[in-house]
Amino acid sequence: MDIKRLLLALMLSFVFIVTWNVFFPPSQGVDINIDKPVEQTNNEIIPENKEVKKTSISIDQGLSDNPITISTPLIELDVINGATSIKNLKIIEHNTDNTYKHTGVWDVLDEVYDENKPVQLIRDGLCNPCLLIDNKPVNFIKHVIEKSNDYQTIVSSTEGAIEKKTIIENNSYTIRHIFKGLPEKNVVLIWDQGLLPSEKFINDDMTYFAVYAQNKESYEEEYISSIDGSENFIFDDNVGWAGLKSKYFIKAITNNHYNELKAQKVVFNAYRTNVIDGVGLVNSDMEYHYNYQDIKGGELEVSSYIGPIDMEHLDQEQNKHLVQLFGFGWFFIGYLGKAVMWLLTTLYSIIPNYGIVCILFAFIIRLFTGPLTKKSFLSNQKMQAIQPKLKKIQEKYKDNTGQLNKEIMLLYKKEGVNPLGGCLPILVQMPLLIALFQVFRKTIEFRGASFLPFWITDLSQPDVVLKFAFLKEIWGINYFFGHGIALLPIIMGVVMFLNMKMTATNNVNPSQASTMYIMNGFFILLFNTFPSGLNLYYTVYNILNFFQQRKLQKLNS
Fold this sequence. Notes:
Elements: H1 3-23, E1 33-34, E2 68-71, E3 75-80, E4 85-91, E5 103-107, E6 112-118, E7 120-122, E8 130-133, E9 136-137, E10 142-147, E11 151-157, E12 163-169, E13 174-180, E14 187-191, H2 203-208, E15 210-215, E16 218-223, E17 230-235, E18 241-245, E19 249-255, E20 265-276, E21 279-290, E22 300-308, H3 311-314, H4 331-350, H5 354-385, H6 387-396, H7 401-415, H8 424-442, E23 464-466, H9 477-481, E24 485-486, H10 488-503, H11 510-527, H12 532-556
Antiparallel strand pairs: 1-17, 2-3, 3-4, 4-7, 5-6, 8-9, 8-14, 10-11, 11-12, 12-13, 13-22, 14-21, 15-16, 15-18, 17-20, 18-19, 19-22, 20-21, 23-24
Helix pairs in contact: 1-11, 4-8, 5-8, 5-12, 6-7, 10-11, 10-12
């Protein structure tokens, strides 16, 4: 088997996997009841600089009273409606050097991005949550705030018997919402304003923006960036938790004892808002519908997690069901992905620079894959050595297929050659490489993490060195180069080209060689959109692979 054909097959396989993940992010494949897009009967044209709000239930603006500000080490909240509903929410978690851990916020109306302000996930919300009974919102008029060392409790009440207790923990993004004294009627909880975009390259958020809901031990999801106007997504099959997610942040609402208390249905009212940098923004409100028979003793308790997709916080006992929202992958790849994440954060605790950790990671992975690469190389060398004999047999028995196959197998046995020996070692490491790709491409650990202050200042973004405004205007090209031209993909492309030249055999036909070089160019295009942390890892990995191949060739000669 020609080594060039092997490399071509592997590269094609990898490109397929990567391209599929980029353009068709995996959904859980469960049937979802999706309503048709809502028609605008008045034919109103919505200006681009105005936010659109689509909710199926009208909420009284009188709920928006003077906000009360509450802060913890992780979040800053403005609450309204008797301190029961979140109006604004900022992430104010700090690093060890007392800087904000998560920064970057859009002024959507002015289309200005501030890289230094803390991330804000909710702005000018009215209902987070609002309690609806008989399709009317419940007004809370009195509240008392109690503080302790570990949490703050807000007790709010109405003119009647309904009471709400809000428990805000200091060391968690989870907030408990407990309603008591509910009548024997169906109730609805409204959560509006969805999630605000947080990324400078806003297409990152929109590509990953999805609604999701529990499905047994897992979840089902629907990516909504391609909706036209407004659209409703309804999940009505034993939903105990559901929410929204962008690339790095989630808004998750979970029923207490979620495997027992199920919502009758959860409705997402998705809608388009502004256009920034040519990217149409989407968002969604949520409605949780409950049957009164499921509300025991007039008490309903839910929790909200509005914060980062960060394993440090999601791995808390009350949030463990949300860990899977990271999207580590399915089956065995998922376990590998979690192992990769563990090793990544462990190395960072020793070497507090994720750029150096990415380089070190490449060396560690080469320790595992290097012997497999060597075995594959030696197997291919054996195949190359018997090529003259193989061609003679093919010529001799070209009219007798049965005898041809028999003679080829005898030749393999005589020469001690395994025709799959070059493929299997590479295929064995593919699950690990896919797990690495999944983690390095989406981990929030890289967000805002600097490698070198004069070059790579954010490992979650491409290492752009040249920007050309006109590239944003060219359809197709704008996807790959709309943000600029990155350096690491070019370096990696050059290394891959040198590797191809070095491993090329004399009998490679021109069409095969040209296909390889076109593939190399496509890699540069594709990786130009990837985070620099992922590209840094792959570049160093390919450099190490180049030197190993070079050493093996010298030894073989």
